[in-house]
Amino acid sequence: MKNLLNSLEEHLALSPVGVAVELPDGARLGRADADVRLRLADRMAVVALAMGEIGNVGAAIVEGRVALEGSMRQLMTAAAALLRLDPARDVQMGWWQRVLARARSMAAHTLAGDAQNIEFHYDLSDDFYALWLDPRRVYSCAYYQGADMTLAQAQEAKLDHICKKLMLRPGERFLDVGAGWGGLLLWAAEHYGVDATGITLSHNQHAHVQRLIDERGLSGRVRMQLLDYRELQTPQPFDKIASVGMFEHVGRTQMGRYFGTVHRLLRPGGLLLNHGITAGGLDNDGLGAGMGDFIERYIFPGGELLHVSVALHEMAASGLEMVDTENLRPHYARTLWAWSDALEARQDEALAILVAQHGQERGERALRAYRLYLAGCALAFERGWIALHQILATRPSGRGDDGSLKGAQSDYPFDRSYMYEGACAAAD
């Protein structure tokens, strides 16, 4: 333990943010004028901090075994200095670990299991999410098309960016897989005139979007279904499909089925926009240093990340052709900091909402978990431990208008200029 404490003190001295640590026996390490203060209640927390297992330290904070003073931005700066290994590359799996990981993934991603995982996260509290998301409650990476954009403007720019990439046209059949609180679904219907269908496993989100559809008089051409993507059947395929912030929940073992289902639902020649978080490392499905375990336990049970190369492989194996890929990693770092700052500014309101719905103990734990999750993910995107890729793909038709074999025909012009023509609707 003495060697660990000496090592910890050395790392504290290297932190660009002053950190003070109070040990269980009352001894103190670090700077007296620190911006970040941690009071550790047990030996396990001391070991986790000394070993740079910042995810496990986060768990101790959530469980009340470590008391924290200081801002989330300062804490994340200090956390990065305490790491011993790159969280994106310290998870090396041998063949046996791969077998176990595959077995866990298969067990987790059943119809019932995925429904429970989605309910755990997305049905926590609509009012809680509304405190720190934009007014449309778009719970995915924004697109800061202009440097001075607000979060709300950047989210509208993202919605429009997706619609433009998909070349949405009035009357087209559009599917939003994992439609959330309906931001993209309604934007596409109201700004591009599509016939729109959304699916979700969240009861809260389903009810919220259904209310918006009714209030806006869109029930004739917009619908929201409480449904797993594997169960969606349609007599007529969709012209365009978007999946935003959803394939992170699919699981590695279900990825072939996921893209195969999209292929089945998409008409020949149609387009898919898959927008999702991807792993920074080639050989891991989450973050090391205890960060992946933290997210699995407190935020997204069942979540698995794939490197973009794996996602592209699975997509190609399902008969979809990638035509454009864009990495929005820096945009997600800025988005998450905007969410984090908004939650920090409204902690009292957030706690009151969570306590009213879940009781004092669970409410306090949930707030501590989300504070760490939002700021920790912002740090992870900043450092490149994880990324965000928009992958545009097509289902090649293989035939021309006259029915003759034409090879990989699609609606895509193989020219990016159409994505950026004219002013974004969000900037009008």
UniProtKB/TrEMBL annotation:
<dbReference type="InterPro" id="IPR029063">
    <property type="entry name" value="SAM-dependent_MTases_sf"/>
</dbReference>
<feature type="active site">
    <location>
        <position position="377"/>
    </location>
</feature>
<protein>
    <submittedName>
        <fullName>SAM-dependent methyltransferase</fullName>
    </submittedName>
</protein>
<dbReference type="GO" id="GO:0008168">
    <property type="term" value="F:methyltransferase activity"/>
</dbReference>
<dbReference type="GO" id="GO:0008610">
    <property type="term" value="P:lipid biosynthetic process"/>
</dbReference>
<dbReference type="InterPro" id="IPR050723">
    <property type="entry name" value="CFA/CMAS"/>
</dbReference>
<keyword id="KW-0489">Methyltransferase</keyword>
<dbReference type="InterPro" id="IPR003333">
    <property type="entry name" value="CMAS"/>
</dbReference>
<dbReference type="GO" id="GO:0032259">
    <property type="term" value="P:methylation"/>
</dbReference>
<dbReference type="Pfam" id="PF02353">
    <property type="entry name" value="CMAS"/>
</dbReference>
<comment type="similarity">
    <text>Belongs to the CFA/CMAS family.</text>
</comment>
<keyword id="KW-0443">Lipid metabolism</keyword>
<keyword id="KW-0808">Transferase</keyword>
<keyword id="KW-0949">S-adenosyl-L-methionine</keyword>
